[in-house]
Amino acid sequence: MSRIPRIVILGAGYGGIVTALRLQKQLNYNEADVTLVNKHDYHYITTHLHMPAAGTDKPDNARVSITKLIDEFKIDFVKSTAVQIRTQDQKIVLEEGTLSYDYLVIGLGGEPETFGIPGLKEHALNIRSINSVRYIREHIEYQFAKFKREPSRTELLTFIVGGAGFTGIEFVGELADRMPELCKEFDVDPALVKIYNIEAAPTALPGFDPELVEYAMNVLRNKGVTFKIATAIKECTPDGVTLATGEEIKSATVIWTGGVRGNHMLEEAGFETMRGRIKVEDDLRAPGHDNIYVLGDCSIVMSPEGRPYPPTAQISMQQAEVCGHNLISQIRGADLKKFEYKPKGTVASLGRGEAIGIVGSRKIKGGVASAMKKIIDLRYLYIIGGIPLVLKKGRF
Amino acid sequence: MSRIPRIVILGAGYGGIVTALRLQKQLNYNEADVTLVNKHDYHYITTHLHMPAAGTDKPDNARVSITKLIDEFKIDFVKSTAVQIRTQDQKIVLEEGTLSYDYLVIGLGGEPETFGIPGLKEHALNIRSINSVRYIREHIEYQFAKFKREPSRTELLTFIVGGAGFTGIEFVGELADRMPELCKEFDVDPALVKIYNIEAAPTALPGFDPELVEYAMNVLRNKGVTFKIATAIKECTPDGVTLATGEEIKSATVIWTGGVRGNHMLEEAGFETMRGRIKVEDDLRAPGHDNIYVLGDCSIVMSPEGRPYPPTAQISMQQAEVCGHNLISQIRGADLKKFEYKPKGTVASLGRGEAIGIVGSRKIKGGVASAMKKIIDLRYLYIIGGIPLVLKKGRF
After folding, report:
1. Where is each FAD/NAD(P)-binding domain found (chains A, B) (predicted)?
2. Which of A210, A279, B169, B200 is the most exposed, having the fewest neighbouring CB atoms within 10 Å of its CB?
3. Is the ipTM of this complex over 0.90?
4. Is there a domain that residue B396 lies in?
5. Percent share of chain A, pLDDT over 70
6. Mean pLDDT computed over A325-349
């Protein structure tokens, strides 16, 4: 009797969870053993994290218990942190124990990329997990409480968001919405609060339609956000940031959203990486490893124009569909599919009731875009958890 | 035409606000100008502050806008901080400006008394105002958020309350109730949380019936509180406390409730003080000053046995009634009343649904005492703001 192949999925982010669901649905009985490994016993919806980070939504609304998503009769779930990938003997070293695999899916997500800017790693906060966003929320509230004890320290009410990409823009929108609430709660004059969004690139939301970017910036400016575009952060200290222009901005809160790289384990495992990411083959496998698939922030997929697609939830989920298909094909000895990204549009929220986006070739903004954003969010909940999850976690 | 006498009331705590209300009710038109001076534009209910400090109630439930309590046609309200009392020329120096008085009521409240214990002033938090309790609440939540980033630092989950008097005991009761909620919110194992209540005196709640004290300590022990009674704190550092026994307890949160002294301005103004308080005459006036009344935490009233009564909301309010009466009598040239404290009973809450108390000569505990506590609280709201305030701020 031949042994049942063992599939290990590292990470229950978009890529990992959708791959698991796909395998759960399509694998036949005893066709493969599937084990999903994740640091937490919940999956979190990364694209929602900017809300609990600002405190405009509960952290619980951005996460789902993994055992509510997968069928534990079909898929094993191990709550543990992977610390090493050993391709030479096909093992994953966990914080507690070791797992063997025949097929591996790497969906470990990303890590903040600070581009070597001094102090960012030590002093800036990152929007990257439920724990980190709870921390950011508490940190922000704490600054208001501190300010009431030391009312001369107005830098406690200055908030700096580094990076005006997708996450940065969505976060400043929520942050600006949250400020009036916090000012009311702590009896603080709203005029004292300052929010800066600083971006080194020549534009906010690089790659987005310029007309929509202009619209977004105006919406956010009206909410009190000050932009510093085409302005690099030279250094981050416990007291704020110094810009390339020499300007110093004092602040007790710097949130860095300016870059993402792949998980550090990939490089350590001997894969060839660019910014910690593996440039995958057409079928999503790591070059030279015909049993290892790489998804999401750990992977690089090139566009037909030869540029890497930005890592998004959307591309991860599409990768997961193909990854699930290819794993099953491989086990069954069938042909593998090529992955082709089909962009379905992008919507960036700008806080309450406001958003911008491209759907198909159509530009949308304002209430329409905001409604579309909600639909996209609900669709994702539906994909991973069906109607019950939509009803439980959906924001209508 | 003789000038209308000017009465200035410093502080809108229990003593100040009740005096103001009494004057407002009983002074005739043009009999006196009354000005109430307070740092904030709200009165706060000090005996409730342990709840918002622990996060079991909203800070707003412990405060009332001053202009909702007083009639601004009859009493002037000045929102400012008094910085100096000048008895020689009958003036109060405010942060902005100066006020003249013919009669002065000092109800400025107390300040933490740290008995010279090194580090307490710098590193311990105090339950003493809306701002301070919002800070404590945020500080506690922040420790949970921090712990999730640095799970080896269990001292972040250790909370030390110095002093097992009234405030200390009521606060640990709320704190213990709050912990399960915070553990749930931050995914923290409740077994990691530690609450210490440390008291130098030979018993908790000194002066209270020993049977009730025993009951209270058992209730709180069952909620997870560890007592260290007859144990002095020798030093407080940013890392915790060292006890007189040599034991060190690591903690990022020390809340000091162990003592209260009078406002520092009294000593600076040349009054004879004991721990910052003025031992008042029978008619509540400061010795040698027939136009200055002193109330609450700024005053010392001796019991018939020659011991100072502990400063409480109850005694302050009774003082305020007599102070109001005596001010009017003095203006009208009538005789002044002697103040005699009539203890009506005391109830200490122990968190949700639990309390102990003495009402008349009767000991009460458990649900009965807890209900009595609520009645006392509602009665106070009724005294200062009538039925509308009871309905708005009452906890039923």
Report:
1. 6-320
2. A210
3. no
4. no
5. 99
6. 95
